[in-house]
Design goal:
Layout (H helix, E strand, L loop, with lengths): L3 H78 L8
Length: about 90
């Protein structure tokens, strides 16, 4: 039969073991949270890179379309600037 002091010692040991396991788990949780935050930061940086690339692509499309439009307008200008011909009578 166990005495009260033995039961108390066993209970204190269980509590100490439990606290040690909790500390281990907490350190693992902190490590996992830190790696997750690092991964999220990496994704955020990549997302900004994709946004910048898409913006550059869109600006290139606008620039190309505008250059083509200006070429068509300049090509049409001499024909529109020539004086009208008189009808043959």
């Amino acid at each position: 039969m166990t005495t009260q002091s033995e039961r108390l010692a066993a209970l204190e040991q269980r509590i100490t073991d439990h606290e040690a396991r909790c500390e281990e788990r907490l350190s693992e949780i902190k490590s996992t949270a830190a790696s997750t935050l690092a991964a999220v930061e990496g994704l955020k940086n990549r997302t900004w890179g994709v946004v910048a690339a898409l913006l550059a692509w869109a600006l290139a499309q606008v620039w190309t379309a505008n250059a083509g439009r200006l070429e068509r307008l300049e090509a049409a200008r001499p024909a529109a600037a020539s004086p009208p011909t008189a009808p043959n009578t």
